[in-house]
Amino acid sequence: MKFEIKKLFASKLIIICLVLLFGFFVFFVVNAYKSREEVSEPYEKLISDISDVSDDSNSVLALLKEKSEQMTTDYYLNSEMYHSTKGEYGSTLADDMFLYRKAYNDAKKYFKTFPQNRIRLINDAMLTIIEEESKENPDKSIIALNQKAVDKYNRQIKMELKSTGDLFNTLYFFDNTYWDYALIAFIIMLTVRMFTLDYSTGAYQIVFSTPGGKKKLFLKQYFTLIASAVTIIALVSLCQIIFGYLFFGVNNLSLPLQMVEYFEFCPFTISIGEYYLIKFLCKTLFFILVITLTAALSIIFRKTMGAMSISLVVFVLPLMIITHYFMYTTGDNVNTISEQYRIYKALQAITPQGLLNLKTYFNAFDYLNILGVFIPRITCCITITVIVIILFFTIGLRRFAKPKR
Amino acid sequence: MKLKFENISKRYKTKKALNNINIELEEGIYAFLGPNGAGKSTLMNILAGIIKPSTGSIYLDGQNTVSMDKDFRKVLGYLPQSPGFYPNFTGYEIMKYFSVLKEADHSEKKINEMLEFVNLYDDRKKKYGAYSGGMKRRLGIAVALINDPQILILDEPTAGLDPKERIRFRNIISRISRNKIIIYATHIVSDVESIADKVILLKSGEIIEFGDTDKVIKNVENKIWLYDTDVDTAEKYTLEHSNAVAVKSGDIVKLRIVSETKPFEGAYNTDSTLEDVYMYYFNESGQEKENDSLV
C-alpha cells in the first residue's frame, strides 16, 4: 500500500489541490471564528448549580419559576439596587435575573413544551387512526404509518437542563455544500489519478503482465483511496467537533439530539454524539460511492479527462439539483406540503447525495411505505448507495486490467 | 521449453493486424523483423496478455497460457515498445515496486544487483522523470529481468538509444540468453544480427520467413550485388530505387543492390548480411519486394 500512496500523492498538482482544499477549510474556520458565540460561563454555572440541587425536572422548574418571578418583582421595586449590587453569577443582580429567566425558559422548553408537543403528535396520530378506522374502506397504510408514529414518539427522552451550544451554526460552517463540492472534486481527482496513472505513464503493459494479481492490485488501489478519503473526512469531522465546541459551545455530546431545537421532532432515540457519528459514517459511505463509481469509469475509459468529466457530472449535478430544491423549499414562500418539497424529499430518498445533507432526515417523522413496510427515508438512501457501490465495485473489478479486444 | 503460437489472428475493425500465425519457439534468441505496422507489437502484446487475439491460442509446453494465467506471467518478462514508469518514483523504488508485483526477490541486495547489471546503481536515487532515454530503457530491461523470466519479450528495445547504449544493451541480452526464449522485435537489423539464433520475418501480419539466422541470410546469397560507380550515378540510382544502398569509398561509390538478377553490366555478387535479407523482403516503405534490376 506504501507504493500506492506514493503513486497517489507524488504529484505537484495533487499537493497543490490538497493545499487549496486546506485553505478552503481554513476559510470556513475563520468565518466560523468571526461568527462565534461567547460561551456564557455564568449561565453554565447557574444551570450546573440548579442541576445539583435536584434531579427532578418538576422541582427544577418550580425552583427556577419561583426564583425568576421573585427577582422580576424585586427588580421593579428596587431596580437601582439590582444594577449596582454584584450578582451571584453575573456582574450585577440584574444579570442574575436575566440568567434565571433564560434558565427558566430553557427548562420550560425541555421539560414542558417538548413532552407536550410529543403528546400532541401522538394524539394526532391516534386520532387519525381512529378516523381512518371509522371509514367504510379504511386505508390500512395510513393506519400503519400513524401507528408507527405513535410507536416512535411514545418513548421517554431524558431531557436535561444543560447547554447544547449552537449545533446548527456548526453544521452551517463545517458541513456545507461548497465544502462538499470541493471534497467531491478532490476525491474524484485522486481516484482518476490512481486508476489512470498506469495508462498515462505507459506502465500498464508491464504492470498488467506481472503475476502480482490483478484483483490484488485493484483492491490495493481501491482501499488506498478509501483510506485516504476516510482520513480526510475523519480529520474534518474531528475539526467540526473541536471548533463546534470552541466557537459555538457544542458540548455534552451524550445529550439527546432532540435537545437541539431543529431536531425536536426527530423520531429516533439518539444522542448528539451518535448523530455526529452517523453523519461521519454516511459521509464516508457517500465518498466510498464516489470512489467506486469514478474508479469504474476510469477503468472503462482509461482516459483521465473522460473519467473526470463524467464523474463530476454524475456527482455534482444531482447534488446541485438537490441543493436547488433544498434552497427553494427553505425559502419564505414554500412550506413542507408544497410540491417542491415533495420532489426534494423524493430525490433525497433515491439519490445518494442526500447523505451529505443528513439533518433533513432527522428533523421529522420521515418514513417511506415500500410494499407495506415502513422504512426511514435515510435507510432507503443508504440501501440504494450500498447497492450502487456493490454494482460498480463488481464492474470495476471485472474490467480492471482486462485485455483489450 | 516450447512456446507455440497456434492460428493467432487479430483484427482491428477493418484492419487485419495478424493473420494466422503458427510458430513454435524453443530456447534461444528470436529476432522478429518487420517494418512498422507489420504486427510485431500486436503479437508481443498478445503474448503478454495485454490484448486478446481474435482467434487462436498460445501454449507453453502444451498448456494454454490464458488458463495458466498467473503461472505463465510468473515466467514472463516484458519490455514493451514504449514503456513508462511513474515520474516521481526513483529508479530504486520502481525496481522495488515491480519486484513486489512480480512476486520476485525484492531484497535490497537483489535490486541493487539488478541496477548494477544495467549500470544504473549510481543513479538509483534519481527520479525516473530525470532519467535520459537510455537510462529509462535500461531500467525497463532491469524491470523485465527482475523475476529471472524464462520468456523475455523485448519490443523495439533499442529505439531511441545511442550506438553506445545499443551495444551495451546487446551485450546484456547475450549474457542472459541461456535457457530462455527471448523474443526480440525490432526493425533495427544490426541490433540482432550478431545475437539472434533465429529470424522471423513478419509482413502485413503474416510470417514470410522463419529459420536459423545463417540459413535465412544464405537464402539471399546470390541476390546481393556490388557496383562501383561515381557519385552522381549512385545518387540518381538510390533516389529512384529503394533496393540499393550507396557506400562511399574514397572517390568511388559502391552501390549495394538487392536484386534477383544482375542489375548492371559490371556488377558483381557479394556476401549477404541480415540487413540484406531485410532489404530483400522489405523495401524502405515496407512494400512488397520487387525486381529492381533496371537502371
How far apart lie the N and C ends of chain A? Answer: 30 Å
Shape, per Cα inertia axes of chain B: globular
Walk across the major sheet of chain A and give the strand order.
1-2
Strand content of chain B: 25-35%
Q: Helicity range of the residues of chain B?
A: 25-40%
Radius of gyration of chain A: 27 Å
The topology string of helices and strands of chain B comes to EEEHEEHHEHHHEHEHEEHEHEEEH
Mean pLDDT of chain A: 84
Shape of chain A: flat
Biggest pleated sheet of chain A: 2 strands, antiparallel
The secondary structure category of chain B is alpha/beta
Task: Note down, in words, how this protein is organized.
The complex is a heterodimer of chains A (405) and B (295). Chain A is mainly alpha-helical. Chain A has two domains: 2-37 and 164-399, no CATH class; 41-153, no CATH class. Chain A has 16 helices and two strands. Chain A has helices spanning 2-9, 12-34, 41-53, 57-77, 79-84, 93-133, 140-153, 167-174, 177-201, 204-207, 214-248, 272-301, 304-329, 339-350, 359-362, 377-399; strands spanning 367-370, 373-376. In chain A, strand 1 (367-370) and strand 2 (373-376) form a beta hairpin. Chain A is flat. With 295 residues, chain B is α/β, with parallel strands linked by helices. Chain B has eleven helices and 14 strands. In chain B, strand 7, helix 7 (163-176) and strand 8 form a beta-alpha-beta unit. The longest helix of chain B is centred in the middle third of the chain and has 14 residues, at 163-176. Chain B is globular and about 65 Å long. Classes of the chains: A mainly alpha (405), B alpha/beta (295). Chain A binds chain B through residues 3, 6-7, 10-11, 197, 201-213, 217, 403-405, and chain B through 45, 48-52, 70-71, 73-74, 76, 78-80, 82-89, 93, 96-98, 100-103, 140, 143-144.
